[in-house]
């Protein structure tokens, strides 16, 4: 939780730097007053433009590291970047007409950058790819009206918002905890809790804990492709072919999983759904699905 808060603070800091940098470029005199000094530029705003570009670049760099989840790079940047507000503070305090009040924004920036950098640098990444769970077909659609599957969800593993058109899903937590979003509500499920997702209901699940979660999913009516999608994903995870969120690293594997799973995308992702369908059908035609089924779906 602390790590997420610090990352959010860093992102806001980046946005603030972008604003300050843009202000020095667009309205240099007003930005100068906020900085805490007076500069007799005589229509020469070179200093302002230099500072504006510096802050704009710094803010964009922080934003890129946050959005790309490069926590270590973000931490080092914040820690080393402490030198910037430190020098700014010394410049402000060196003026005869300024005092501690004018230096407060720079002091706050020093504290935020230094503490955030130190804490983020010491934060440990969760070992989310140490696969030790299972996937078990309890009841198959071959002989029954429902598919019932038990499988584990790794720490940090999550799905995007999506929905299914061919079946309903009932999630029952057998071990651990699971966050499930359904329509506009977020549910925190614990052992023995269950939730029903009807066809066309948008939903997601996310294991936000540090422990694996074991769930039982009942698909009604049963769907053989859904069963295969879970078995294939399980096999890919065992072979370290998924990322920390449980998503297949190979694009064709991801497309096949979405296609077999009858997952319909939500929002802007809907725009790329035809592309994934095309990739999946091409993978089926090329025999890639058959290979995955032979490798991971054998009884």
UniProtKB/TrEMBL annotation:
List UniProt keywords, sorted A-Z.
Membrane, Transmembrane, Transmembrane helix
**Entry's transmembrane regions:** 5-26, 46-67, 74-93, 99-121
**SUPFAM superfamilies named among the record's database cross-references:** RmlC-like cupins
Q: Which domain of life is it from?
A: Bacteria
Transmembrane helix keyword on record = yes
Q: Outline the extent of the Cupin type-2 domain.
A: 151-215
Q: Gene3D superfamilies annotated for this entry?
A: Jelly Rolls
What is the protein name given in its UniProt record? Answer: Cupin domain protein
Q: Which organism is it from?
A: Chryseobacterium oranimense
> What lineage is on file?
Bacteria, Pseudomonadati, Bacteroidota, Flavobacteriia, Flavobacteriales
């Amino acid at each position: 939780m602390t790590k997420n808060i610090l990352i959010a603070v860093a992102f806001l800091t980046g946005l603030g730097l972008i604003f300050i940098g843009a202000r020095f470029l667009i309205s240099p005199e007003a930005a100068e007053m906020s900085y805490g000094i007076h500069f007799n530029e005589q229509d020469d705003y070179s200093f302002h433009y230099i500072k504006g570009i510096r802050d704009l670049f710094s803010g964009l760099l922080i934003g890129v590291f946050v959005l790309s989840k490069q926590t270590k790079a973000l931490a080092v940047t914040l820690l080393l970047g402490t030198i910037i507000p430190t020098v700014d503070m010394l410049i402000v305090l060196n003026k005869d007409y300024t005092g501690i009040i004018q230096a407060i924004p720079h002091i706050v920036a020093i504290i935020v950058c230094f503490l955030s950098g130190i804490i983020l640098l010491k934060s440990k990444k969760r070992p989310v790819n140490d696969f030790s769970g299972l996937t078990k077909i309890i009841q198959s659609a071959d002989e029954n009206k429902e598919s019932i599957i038990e499988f584990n969800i790794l720490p940090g593993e999550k799905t995007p918002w999506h929905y299914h058109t061919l079946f309903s899903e009932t999630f029952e937590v057998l071990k651990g905890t699971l966050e499930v979003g359904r329509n506009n509500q977020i549910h925190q499920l614990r052992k023995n809790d269950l939730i029903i997702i009807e066809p066309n209901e948008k939903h997601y699940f996310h294991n936000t804990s540090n422990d694996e979660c074991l769930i039982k999913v009942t698909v009604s009516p049963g769907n053989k492709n859904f069963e295969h999608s879970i078995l294939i994903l399980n096999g890919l995870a065992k072979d370290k072919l998924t990322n920390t969120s449980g998503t297949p690293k190979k694009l064709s594997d991801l497309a096949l999983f979405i296609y077999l799973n009858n997952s319909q995308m939500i929002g802007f992702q809907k725009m790329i759904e035809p592309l994934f369908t095309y990739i999946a059908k091409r993978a089926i035609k090329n025999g890639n699905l058959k290979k995955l089924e032979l490798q991971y779906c054998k009884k």
